[in-house]
From TrEMBL:
It is a multi-pass membrane protein. This is MFS transporter. Keywords: Cell membrane, Membrane, Transmembrane, Transmembrane helix, Transport. GO terms for cellular component: plasma membrane. It holds the Pfam family MFS_1. It comes from Bacillus aquiflavi.
Amino acid sequence: MKKFKEIFQNKTFARLFLANFTQQMGSIIGLTAFMYYVLDRFTNQPVYATVTELMYSLPTIVVFFLVGVFADRLDRQKIAYYCNWISSFLSLLLIGVIMIGWMPLIFTILFIRSAVTKFFFPAEHGMVQGILKKDDYTTAAGLNQLVGSLFMLFGTALGIFAFRSVGIYGAILVDVVCLAFSGLLIRGCRIAEEVRLPNGRHKIKDLKVSFVLKEFKQGFTYVVKHKLLFSLIIGFFILGIVNGGITVMPVFYLKYKLAPETYEQLAAIIGVVTGSGILLGSVIATILVQKFKLYKLMIIGLAIPGIFIVLASLTNSIYTYIPLIFLATLSFPIINISLGGWMPSIVDPKMMGRVQGLINPLMMLSQSFILGFIAYSFPKFITIEAIYWIVGGSLLIVSIFYLMVLPKNVKEFEGTSQTSIKESKAL
């Protein structure tokens, strides 16, 4: 708690944190409400709900090579607040389009809005890296994980409450106000030019196609040549597999093995258990990262849920399954906070946007792959237990991989960093 108090004494970080919180809250309320609106209005056309989800994920493929370059070459602060204001305007426009009721236009607005929001996080992460001290990175990551856990636990309920109480238009209007307020908070921050423009001043007209592709390639090469960073990126890829598997595993396990008759009610209970586990794990992880080396926590944090997920596939009792899932989710924040706290420490601020711009599409790729594999293979070729073995086994494999490579890579990186510091002092 002392660390949290200290980090909020940085007024710029406090504003950015509140802006990020407000943006997430508005988006979750608005988008969750829209999903339930679609399910209610088009009960016999579930394809609309699926298309809605695609409108949130597909833009990543379209803009992934742009977001990092923009965050590194343009003003990060302007990118962040313009993203929120444009998204706020698009959400307001969505209200009018919903009144018209033409679904292709509605999906087009959702697609554009989602594409715009993809530019926000690389720019925001770059600014946070620049305004915090190195020792505060893990604390900031812990705070973000804690907020993410709260939204996981209560976000859907907030969206449903807004939809049922003020309707779809009122819920989206909440999104409009939250995004506009978030943009104002970021606009009011005083951020040094070297943080906003780490690579000097550029204009949008300077970012031609050939320049963007060259910059993207440079970012990709930077990741590949940076041994420690490349090892960590593998962790993000595996987290995509885990995230994809976890979205369907509990419901499938309940429906096809443990409780075919009552799986819907039990799925809701498991959702609360999962959110509670991640929330408690966030608090525990925030304490642990202050006491242990991050790479050691990551190795343990990957192994523990891997073991419990495999064990969960072996039980035939719901009373055993739920505690195992709780114990598995308890360790996920250790992975997220370790990765989130470590990344700003090892990435060159001039490359942060491009590195962040690579992570999201990589995770989406692995998540889409595992979901596609499950859709094609289950239950024709693989059992429900096999899905658990794949996800749990992936975590264990990466844990072993990190055990083999991280100690050496960390030692090499720290040695290189110390040499660079000595050379800078000599100059």
